[in-house]
Amino acid sequence: MPLVGSRRESPSAMTFDFSTRGTGFEYLSNQAIRLGLPGVDDPWGAARTFSLSSSPTEHDLLSVTCKISDTPFKQALSRMGPGDSAVVVGPIGEFLYDAHRPSVFIAGGIGITPFRGMARYSADSQNAEPIRLLYSARIPEELVFRRELDAIARAHPAFRVQYTVTRPAGSAEPWKGRVGRVDASWIRETAEPLARPKYYVTGLPEMVEEIVSLLRGPLAVSEDDIDYEIFRGF
Ligand SMILES: Cc1cc2nc3c(=O)[nH]c(=O)nc-3n(C[C@H](O)[C@H](O)[C@H](O)COP(=O)(O)OP(=O)(O)OC[C@H]3O[C@@H](n4cnc5c(N)ncnc54)[C@H](O)[C@@H]3O)c2cc1C
After folding, report:
1. What is the mean pLDDT of residues 130-146?
2. Residue that is last in its domain, among 51, 70, 92
3. Could you tell me if the CB of 229 is within 6 A of ligand 1?
4. Residue 85: inside a domain, yes or no?
5. In this structure, is residue 42 part of a structural domain?
6. Region 203-207: what's the mean pLDDT?
7. Residue 145 maps to a domain
8. pLDDT of residue 44
9. pLDDT band at 39, cuts 50/70/90?
10. If pLDDT is split at 50, 70 and 90, which confidence band does 234 have?
11. Distance from the alpha carbon of residue 48 to the mean position of ligand 1, in angstroms
């Protein structure tokens, strides 16, 4: 699939838009893909799994947003220009947005990617089911999609987003918002007004395990109401 364009989203993350025009590629909100760059010589292979950060309502397009590390794969990806091609396998994954009930999304760092797609999907389809997003990053600059999420929330009142940063001292940007990790009382307070929400959690393994334990333990959420996706491989 040809790259249409790319952009920096934060000091460490970039988005890559690929054209799906004429390929018949379709996906559900919000599946993942395997993205391959044949010929890239990387000790861990020339492909990675990425959640889609785009929504099926964004026609003829799929997007991935990832942290640009110094691995040969990520370096090759960051150097791609419009018209350059990648191999897309998918869609894959069962981390699917249930648009028929309220949702609580909890994201750590780059784990925000599928929630950008889900929020866009909810707004574009004018879904009235409430979504509450709790999003944590180390520093404010690394709250990927912050401006866009705020814009979606202004235009689509069913969607609300709240942020927290865990290490504001490491930032050049002043931060007057919430500080610290996502904890049980914040999740409880957020979910309380909602009628049996579904909880979605994404991020690196340690964060996802911590939040899912809170949901299963002190928050006593039923297993059927929890879905999570772990971004392994960092
Ligand atoms: C469902 C899913 C969705 C994801 N979505 C995103 C996303 O939206 N954005 C994003 O940035 N990333 C996402 N990831 C992670 C992504 O696939 C990459 O693993 C990650 O971006 C790191 O790639 P890298 O080249 O920077 O790092 P690397 O450290 O080179 O990791 C690349 C590969 O090496 C393997 N590896 C590295 N070290 C070890 C080790 N010690 N032992 C065994 N294997 C090792 C990893 O399994 C991985 O496959 C997702 C992963 C999954 C499973």
Report:
1. 97
2. 92
3. yes
4. yes
5. yes
6. 96
7. yes
8. 94
9. very high
10. confident
11. 6
Helix (H) or strand (E) holding 120: helix 113-124
Q: Are 19 and 58 in contact (CB under 8 A)?
A: no
Pairwise CA distance, residues 120 & 56, whole Å: 9
Beta-bridge partners for 33:
50
pTM of the full structure: 0.95
Token pair of 48, please? Answer: 């990675």
Whether ligand 1 lies within 6 angstroms of the CB of 51 is answered as yes
pLDDT at 233 over 90: no
CATH of residue 17's domain is: 2.40.30.10
d(CA 163, CA 154): 15
Residue nearest to atom 31 of ligand 1 (CA): 233
Does residue 126 sit in the same domain as residue 225?
A: yes
Can you tell me whether residue 155 is helix, strand or coil?
Answer: helix
User: Is 97 within a domain?
Assistant: no
232 confidence band (pLDDT: 50, 70, 90): confident
**CB of 95 closer than 6 angstroms to any ligand 1 atom:** no
Q: How many domains does the chain have?
A: 2
Q: Is the CB of 10 under 6 A from ligand 1?
A: no
pLDDT band for position 170 (50/70/90)?
A: confident
**Among 120, 144, 225, 135, which Cα is nearest to 181's?**
135
The answer on 206 and 130 residing in a single domain is: yes
Rounded distance from Cα 89 to ligand 1 centre (Å):
16
Structure tokens at 6: 């790319």
Is residue 182 within 6 Å of ligand 1 at its C-beta?
no
